[in-house]
């Protein structure tokens, strides 16, 4: 049974690679223009422009504007890993008779089932609205006020959040597009995520790096030593 699953999964991986090779090459510019056909980039850009405008109005630039964004950049690979593992790969379950599942987890399972379904590549817009309100606004404002940060410092952190998440959405979209890697750095990122989708969903959770958090947290094994999963396209097996 194990050999059968391994063979089927390996065939799936090989078929995906052949399918990509057969498609006409697309340019980075064309991919960038296609990226803007979806709501997520516009929503993030609106937040970015609004926060930037607010930061320019407040003024009073200081070294304190740098520390929080620098901390965010340093921690982001691990935040990304944590969200991917514990939120996107959440296994639905019943606790005290209550069925617990989320839109993000459901759509991520659909994304694994159909990695080339472009709308599923993006964070669902309804979830993104809540993310902007809670993580993008309420959380930094609340924490900033608690630690005594100035309005300018809070806005600088919010600006860094918007930029970082915009990079995440663009990188994830680019990986799943028909654009073929040219640089060594991007090819490493691209390959890392394809291993997650087509080799084994229990590893390679990084999106915007070539495995920074995976290497630290033990989810970046040698692909040759990892069995090809039979559930990479159906997370948790029986769960739809």
Automatic annotation (TrEMBL):
Signal peptide segment: none
Transmembrane segments: 42-61, 67-88, 128-148, 154-175
Positions of the UniProt region annotated as Disordered: 218-240
GO molecular function: iron ion binding; oxidoreductase activity
Record protein name field: Sterol desaturase family protein
UniProt xrefs under Pfam families: FA_hydroxylase
GO BP: any one term: lipid biosynthetic process
């Amino acid at each position: 049974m194990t050999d059968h699953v391994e063979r089927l999964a390996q065939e799936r991986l090989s078929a995906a690679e052949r399918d990509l090779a057969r498609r006409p090459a697309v340019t980075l510019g064309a991919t960038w223009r296609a990226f803007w056909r979806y709501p997520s980039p516009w929503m993030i850009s609106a937040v970015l422009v609004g926060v930037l405008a607010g930061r320019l109005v407040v003024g009073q630039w200081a070294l304190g504007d740098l520390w929080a964004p620098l901390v965010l950049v340093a921690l982001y690979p691990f935040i990304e890993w944590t969200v991917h593992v514990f939120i996107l790969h959440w296994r639905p379950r019943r606790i005290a008779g209550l069925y617990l599942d989320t839109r993000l987890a459901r759509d991520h399972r659909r994304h694994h089932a159909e990695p080339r379904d472009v709308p599923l590549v993006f964070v669902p817009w309804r979830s993104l609205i809540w993310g902007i309100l809670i993580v993008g606004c309420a959380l930094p404002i609340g924490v900033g006020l608690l630690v005594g940060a100035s309005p300018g410092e809070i806005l600088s952190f919010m600006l860094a959040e918007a930029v970082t998440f915009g990079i995440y959405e663009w990188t994830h979209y680019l990986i799943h597009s028909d654009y073929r890697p040219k640089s060594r750095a991007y090819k490493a990122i691209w390959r890392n995520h394809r291993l997650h989708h087509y080799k084994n969903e229990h590893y390679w959770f990084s999106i915007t790096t070539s495995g920074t958090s995976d290497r630290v947290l033990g989810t970046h094994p040698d692909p040759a030593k990892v069995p090809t999963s039979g559930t990479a396209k159906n997370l948790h097996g029986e769960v739809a």
